[in-house]
Design goal:
The protein contains 13 helices and 14 strands. By secondary structure, it is of the alpha/beta class. β5, α5 and β6 form a beta-alpha-beta unit. It is globular and about 65 Å long. The N terminus is likely disordered. The structure holds S-adenosylmethionine. InterPro entries: MeTrfase_RsmB-F_NOP2_cat (IPR049560), MeTrfase_RsmB-F_NOP2_dom (IPR001678), RCMT (IPR023267), RCMT_subfamily_9 (IPR023269), SAM-dependent_MTases_sf (IPR029063). GO terms for molecular function: RNA binding; RNA methyltransferase activity.
């Protein structure tokens, strides 16, 4: 990919450091030319999509909605509409979610009954969509290293009434090792006899324990501690009634598992929506106009940070893949458009797992308005090609044990 222009597109307040970053990464700034006029996408809560209900939501939002014909449940609203203040949002009828993010979830091809892992789950738009697709069977495990972000995700789950089959762990996704609770699981992987379990988990209650309040205080006082969590520091932040946790001992889950256990009893689907520089999200970059462009330089574009982000991405992808069952599929996605954070990470991962991992076509993507990535079978959404935020998506299946 060659950068064809170095100047910022007209009418876009992109700082020189960002233009340099795009140029260094072979990205053409003109892909952002229409970014400020992109539609604001919303996803309707399943069950609220009749014509009458849509008309009601339009009146609550104060605008007309246009159906996105290539992804069910998504609608485009005018760019400057404020979703969070609307009655429809407060009543839990709609989600604010870019349609490219919805595509990443659809690409995972979740079926009811699947056990799904979302390794970078917060703030949770994709997690909620995954739960809507799961319906009333299977389970979803959400992991995120940032406690305050995962707590916001829990609030969202409860608001939309989606928590029943979900459990949330504050943990480092590069070392997280808990498998889903499967009925057919060999008892050697579950240490406690449920009947005799004296410290069994009761139903989750919103009343926070002393331990949880203490942990929350610690994470507010020093967010750096969130970034150095180890497996031993895994915290169970939430579990629903049918998540498989109620009635079991915490000790059952806080044990390390080997690769063969994961290959047999691991997750059917894994989403690794990895931490990245967010350069594909124009809305995210625009926030720095308010915080100060020098903050963007320091926090996002700094070369050292970019290197550590790609290392983190590879580790998240590697661990997500380790927790996948043989025959299962994984989506790797980022909202960066740089080759370093997408194709390069993927190439490295595939070269490290030649016998176990296979990059596969995303079958549902046939009519999607996206481009191919530099590696065939991968997809790239960007504001120019897709009228969406930027997103890279790759799908991998596990064909044998790692
Ligand atoms: C792109 S965001 C995920 C967005 C989310 N999937 C959604 O749809 O709302 C990346 C997330 O990765 C989390 N993260 C960063 N490092 C992590 C790590 N080592 N383990 C787990 N999560 C991590 C960040 O806290 C952030 O919430």
């Amino acid at each position: 990919m060659e950068a064809e222009a170095e100047a910022p597109p007209p009418n876009l307040p992109l700082p020189p450091a960002f233009i340099d970053f795009l140029h260094d990464n072979g990205l053409n700034p003109s892909i952002y030319a229409s970014a400020s006029s992109l539609p604001r996408y919303i996803r309707l809560k399943p069950g609220t999509t009749s014509e009458t209900q849509i008309a009601e939501i339009e009146s609550e939002l104060g605008c007309e909605l246009e159906k996105v014909d290539w992804l069910p449940g998504f609608f485009a609203a005018p760019p400057h509409i404020h979703i969070a203040g609307s009655v429809a949002y407060k009543r839990g009828k709609i989600y604010g979610m870019d349609v490219a993010s919805g595509a990443a979830v659809m690409a995972l091809d979740v079926s009811p009954g699947d056990h799904v892992l979302d390794l970078c789950a917060a703030p949770g738009a994709k997690l909620c969509m995954l739960l809507d697709l799961l319906g009333s069977s299977g389970s979803l495990t959400g992991v995120d290293v940032a406690r305050h972000r995962l707590a916001a995700c829990r609030t969202m789950l409860l608001k939309y009434g989606l928590g029943d089959r979900c459990r949330l762990f504050v943990a480092d996704g590069t070392s997280f090792s808990f498998l889903p609770v499967r009925e057919e699981m060999d008892m050697k992987t579950i240490t406690t006899n449920v009947e005799e379990c004296t410290d069994a988990l009761k139903e989750w209650s919103p009343k926070r324990s002393w331990k949880e309040r203490k942990s929350a205080r610690r994470s507010t006082n020093g967010s750096a501690s969130e970034l150095v969590r180890t497996t031993a520091q895994v915290e169970l932040l939430y579990y629903g009634r049918h998540s498989g946790m109620v009635g079991r001992s915490k000790r059952d889950f806080f044990i390390e598992r080997g690769d063969s256990d994961a290959s047999a009893f691991g997750y059917d689907r894994v989403l690794v929506d990895a931490e990245c520089t967010h350069d594909g999200s124009f809305k995210h970059i625009q926030k720095f106009e308010h915080w100060g462009w020098d903050t963007l330089q320091r926090r996002v574009l700094n070369a050292e940070r970019s290197d550590s982000v790609t290392e983190l991405q590879l580790q998240l992808l590697t661990n997500g893949f380790k927790l996948l069952k043989v025959g299962g599929s994984l989506i790797y996605s980022t909202c960066s458009l740089t080759v370093a954070q997408n194709e390069d990470v993927l190439k490295k991962f595939l070269s490290m797992n030649p016998a176990a991992a296979e990059l596969v076509e995303i079958e549902v993507a046939k009519n999607w308005p996206c481009k191919s990535g530099q590696i065939p079978k991968t997809l790239r959404f960007d504001p120019l090609a897709s009228q969406t935020s930027g997103l890279f998506i790759a799908k991998i299946t596990k064909i044998s044990q790692t």
